[in-house]
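It is worth pausing here to work through a concrete case rather than discussing structure prediction in the abstract. The textbook approach is simple: state the sequence, then state the predicted structure, then interpret. We follow exactly that order.
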Amino acid sequence: MTNKLSLERKTFVAREDLLNRLTSVAEERGCSLYKLVNEIFELAVTSDNLGSNLKMAVESTRKMDAAKAAGLVLGLESLWYEMADIAYDKQRTLALKSWFDAGVWLATRYVTGETQAPLAVFKQDLLSFTWNAAEFTFEENEGRVLVRVSSPRFTEAYTNLFSSFLEGALNAFGYKVTTKLVSRGMIRLEGSKELTR
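Step two, the predicted structure:
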């Protein structure tokens, strides 16, 4: 016995340009428009049941792709802090330089990329990647920048290393850090655009 409800079809209205594009996608996949639309509806319902939506899912995928492209990998937070502590304790100067250089390298990818607003995209991605920070604000206005980060889980070593990373990134965007306040779990950096002569 078939479920009558599952066989019922309803008509809905969609923008013509989107429907045409969706028809092309279905053809590229070798499936019917009916099947593709139902797949999209199922994903939308599943996302909603998970407390999300398709827009958030697409954005999460974009962030993960950006993280992979930037050379980032997932790791245990506690292990990351422990390794930071060991490096900072054994070779503080070298560790700080390595994190500074990593900040310069990552930010330079955005500066030399094809985006029209590299700092805005970098800021958006960094805020997404740094989910271990309870507070992360990154404000830019008229040639000045303010970065605040706080997390009760940061060790003293990790806080200093991450601060060095941020300073390197700001440097790559042409900012000179003028105020630097760093204590365990708290970072505050203020900078201004360096004027070229």
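Step three, interpretation. The longest strand covers residues 175-183. Helices lie at 4-7, 16-29, 33-49, 54-69, 77-90, 92-111, 118-129, 156-172.
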